[in-house]
Amino acid sequence: REQMGAALVPLLVSVVLMVVAAARAPAASAAPRAFFVFGDSLVDNGNNNYLLTTARADAPPYGIDFPSHRATGRFSNGLNIPDIISEHLGAEPALPYLSPELRGAKLLVGANFASAGVGILNDTGVQFVNIIRMGDQLRYFGEYQRKLRAFAGEEQAARLVSGALVLVTLGGNDFVNNYYLVPMSMRSRQYALPDYVRFIVSEYRKILRLYELGARRVIVTGTGPLGCVPAELAQHSSNGECAAELNRAVDLFNPQVVDMVRGLNRDAGADVFVSANAYRANFDYLANPQSYGFTNVKAACCGQGPYNGIGLCTAASNVCADREVFAFWDAFHPTERANRIIVGQFMHGSTDYMHPMNLSTILAMDQLQEGP
């Protein structure tokens, strides 16, 4: 009998462990939090494929390093920033809102509303004709929530949206494809640069009414060093130096976005909005390429002309053999490798990169608040 009792002890221990594991299982196996994405080509993952526009990335060599090795509409050789954030969430990438596959259980993953070419202002990117301007991206978010409520019910839909992570990336096109698009552009005649920056930041604030639409965790990025992208080097640089005027615009814009985000949090009475310092996350590897394993941080991998920065990346373009050592994929957009470095800083970086806290801290805090 003693032997039998001794034999039962490990059995009882394993039963207790199984009970404890079962009690914890719902938290451990809970669906990853939903993810919503708003903004421009840095974060568009295919909405423009469904639109009659020239702002598209749905033909080779785009997607050359994507898991399917096919062009998906992402402005990258592979994964873009939202894809890599989704990996950290343990989730599949949210589908483009215009995708016919975004229905049923796929709604629970979230949605990507971003559209290449858009800016904070409605007149940004007019040359691309059919793109999803910010008013429409927000309108689609409301439409998405109606579909979600019909599928999952009011309560679960509200919980999913309030528990979601939201990413908003805007601003670069308001400079590149508006203020500086042509010499003496309409906006540059209307506003001196400091006044223009104040104007677009005040307009950005209006777009960020996501709190009213149910969002409770919103990452707002500033812009990267626009003067250092291959397209600008090709037009404005004789010696590889970044275009000073565009970087001056960024230096004015980014701090004001941070101040605006702080103001939104004061209004909300909580740290709903988080500032992501895209400039710093990009500039680290542009200023010190060897430390990050890059051998070329000036030329695009895919393109033509000086720095491969002229025109579009197409099947007729030069394409570098090793995308791992290039920081830029095309005239404006980072390679997947550079995107991974940027997201790594958003995940684990100091408050220099994410303010008031980085993404891994946010995810850990929010998981604690949800409880088991």
Automatic annotation (TrEMBL):
Keyword Phosphoprotein in annotation: no
Annotated signal peptide: 1-22
InterPro entries assigned: GDSL, GDSL_Est/Lipase, SGNH_hydro_sf, SGNH_plant_lipase-like
Pfam family, one: Lipase_GDSL
GO MF: hydrolase activity, acting on ester bonds
Keywords, comma-separated and alphabetical: Hydrolase, Lipid degradation, Lipid metabolism, Signal
Coiled coil: none
BP term (GO), one: lipid catabolic process
Highest taxon, organism lineage: Eukaryota
Family to which this protein belongs: Belongs to the 'GDSL' lipolytic enzyme family.
Protein name: GDSL esterase/lipase
Classification of source organism: Eukaryota, Viridiplantae, Streptophyta, Embryophyta, Tracheophyta
